[in-house]
């Protein structure tokens, strides 16, 4: 892949990320005002008043303006979870990677390089792309009489490293979003909690009887934002660790297959 093509893909990725966050924010505002803030959820049809008993939409609406921000973060998390699933599924290619690596090793040991290349073309995953690059170099160097043995091995290793360097960024793309969301979900939730507690204590601090509605609203705001923040952070941490383990698995298999190719080539030079 050329630098120009890689730069264009980076621009598209940035545009996708920005668009996803914007769409999530707009959807969150719509849900907050038109679904959760729907007058039918409140006594007397007044969103500024008390919610109907047992109506959770009204309870969430009482969480205040921090709620749409937290909903935006959660929806963004959901969007990028689907994006990672799709991307890593494409990187996995067709069939099981373990079976593909084992078949590839058998073909290389038998010297069937053309068949191995065909298997890579059929598999169409990140590992197949890396191995295809190494196998093409393998073919080029097999009958080369000018380079020394060590130079040939280093050349194959360099080819594998270059191909790997092109594939790994795609595997790890947008992972920073999960780690960021894991942190800021809790922090923004805490901001909402503090604002809610300020409102609740403000209701208690009034002279005479406390304002029961303001007190309940403040407590609802605090609890709703806490729940949203902690839930979003937990999901982000789980998904980050899940995708990280998948990426580590791909990387290990790429290294394993590359090492096997190099060893097979070195063995063929000794024979």
Content-based structural category: mainly alpha
Number of helices: 9
Count all strands and give the number: 0
**Gross geometry:** rod-shaped
Q: What does the radius of gyration come to?
A: 28 Å
Overall pLDDT metric: 83
**SSE pattern, N- to C-terminal:** HHHHHHHHH
Instruction: Tell me the number of structural domains.
Output: 1
N-end to C-end Cα span: 35 Å
Strand content: under 5%
Largest sheet: none
Give the fraction of residues assigned to helices.
Answer: over 70%
**Low-pLDDT segments, ≥5 res:** 1-5
Give an overview in words.
This protein has about 270 residues and is mainly alpha-helical. The chain has one domain (about 65-270). About 80% of the residues lie in helices and about 0% in strands. The protein has helices at about 5-35, 55-60, 65-90, 95-110, 115-125, 125-140, 150-170, 175-205, 210-270. It is rod-shaped, with a radius of gyration of 28 Å. Mean pLDDT is about 85; it is low at about 1-5.
